[in-house]
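QA checklist item 7 of 12: single-chain prediction sanity check.
[x] sequence parsed
[x] length recorded as 302
[x] structure emitted
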Amino acid sequence: MIKPAILTTIVAIAACWCPQTAFAQDEGCRRVGQRYECVAGDDPEPKPTVTVVERPGGSNTSVEVPASPVVWSRYHIPPTAVVDPPPCQRIQETADEIVVTYGAIWLVTVYNTDSGELLAIYTYCEWPGEDPPQPPPLPQPPGETDVETQEILALEVGINPPVDGFGGLTQLDTWFWCDDPGIVDVEARTSGSVAAAQVGISELVWTITGPSGDTTRTSTTCGTEPDPDGNGEGAAATWTPTQTGDHTITLGATWEGTWTASLALDGFGWVTAGPFDLAPISITGEPVTYPVVQIQTVGGRP
């Protein structure tokens, strides 16, 4: 057991050993007699928090993709309907404050009204200074007014007797055919959409005008080039001129098939819908001048 006198001596020695100058230099300490009383430093004041709430920059909207059952829509979601944590929240801390920004929340959908298929659904955050989600550029399916489609689908007229000979002969059958390309891929593009179609020939119409009168010949296939020494087997159509002179022959083709729409959705990516039935496309090729002469002698075909 330590005696009281010895214990007092130990405490006194410990007190003298402490560097009192350290306490004297501390602004949070003051001397009281032979001791220093120090007050612990206060915690820094919390930074103020500033809340910014973006109001929606538009209303609920729906647009239809042309010639299809696809509908793009946007719906504003009230903040009270959102679970925690909010999907559109940004926190930025500066030297002076904490800024909490809540973006306007939109639900974007792409829906096939025929099949009931939901092609895309996602939330979109509209931040201050930005616009609400916009519908993508709407694709127009390939049609007969598209220059590129015209070039791809225009067919050349196959004729016998050939144009590069002396042309047709009165009272002699002229055979028509064409080269069938089969199923053809055509596209119509914008900066944010692609309309891709696959089409095939459904009808062919040869139109002949000239001294022999105006007439047409039709077929559902191109046929094949007949053997010049044969009887025209394989030809898609036959025409017999009756008068000499220049005739004009054009070949029009009607194409049918399906198409798909690819849309670039802001904040999501690409989505593809289809295939859908494509409206018939009618393309007429370049006219051909076809001379017809009269031959009195009997002979073979040119």
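[x] summary fact logged: The first strand starts at residue 29 and ends at 32.
[ ] second reviewer sign-off
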